[in-house]
Write a structure and sequence with these properties.
This protein is an alpha/beta fold and about 375 residues long. It has helices at about 60-65, 100-110, 125-135, 155-165, 180-185, 190-210, 230-235, 245, 250-260, 285-300, 325-330, 335-345, 360-365; strands at about 25-30, 35-40, 45-55, 75-80, 85-95, 115-120, 140-145, 170-175, 215, 310-315, 315-320, 350. The chain has 13 helices and twelve strands. It has a five-stranded antiparallel beta sheet, with no helix packed on it. A four-stranded parallel beta sheet has the order 8-7-6-9, with helices on both faces. It starts with about 25 loop residues before the first strand and ends with a helix.
Amino acid sequence: MSGLPRSPAIVSPAPAGVDPARRVLRSTASGSTLGVWWRLAFGDSLLPVAETSISTTHDQATWFRAYDLSVSRRQTLSFDWDSVSRYYSAMSTPVPAPTHPVTALRRLVGTFPSVLLGYSGGVDSAFLAVVLRQELGRERMMAAIGRSASYPLAQWEAARALVRRFDIPLVEIETRELEDSNYVANPTNRCFYCKTELWGRLVPEARARGLAVVCDGTNADDLRGGEHRPGYAAGRSAGVRSPLAEAGMTKAQIRDASRGLGLPTWDAPAAPCLSSRVVYGLTITPERLRQVEAAERYLRELGVTGDLRVRHHGGGGARIEVEPRWIPWLEQRLDHVTARLAALGFGAVGVDPRGYRRGSLLEGASRA
């Protein structure tokens, strides 16, 4: 091996305080670029010190045989600080391939003795319900819906259809968040009170049924970028697990995996509760929730697809948020839409020119 190239970056004196016996030279080979990267390790840190590329015109087999390298292998070599042309020992260890998030999820939930899932029928909880059913079987899992005036009828029907199709056991429990004055006052942390009520009923239900783990459909994206998630805090306080987030699954990955499993929810728009349409500070009432639900149902019947919100601003005002592609179409029909929404109790109707965006009600709350 005397003909191997030397790395000039590692012939300088060792940094003060570094034990020469701990210095390790690591080289890796890439099967696509046939490059060799030298790494000099001091303790636990790896520092790039030089790079030598292998031309495809060289005898690749000789190079790889000399270095004892192969694709997806890492070579760890101890060396004499004064001369990198002498190698005293070599050992190779496999480089584990990254675990796909779906595989990680299945492994994770497979460790659960039994599970009760807080289930809404949305993209995330629908996918998780099917995976739990596949991994744990019918006897070790159950989906649970919390029913109240804030849960849209159309979503309830779709959620029930999915569990029938995939043979998922389901329990429905009435929740009473509308009896909580904190929730009804509609502060910016309203979701905390909603989820406190939900888990306050689902956790005892799980215990009564002998189900060991209670979980929700929070995904990895939900916990990034400073998302406003007061409901998540309520779940953590109740000991609720979030397998999708724990496995690192993003919304896009969940949609892709859902499509592969044949779930009709793979391309469904986000569907939070109806109270999320009522501007913060405006009291939540069953009547306002019914107005919002009826208005959105009408717009769906007209043909609007994708993300849609009818924001209730009180005083008879409604602001419609749709995806940008639908704004011109909706503005052309605004007179008819206004007339229909007026029959539902909305006196003033407008289309938000910025289109739908998550957290738009927080914009108004921050200006208040």
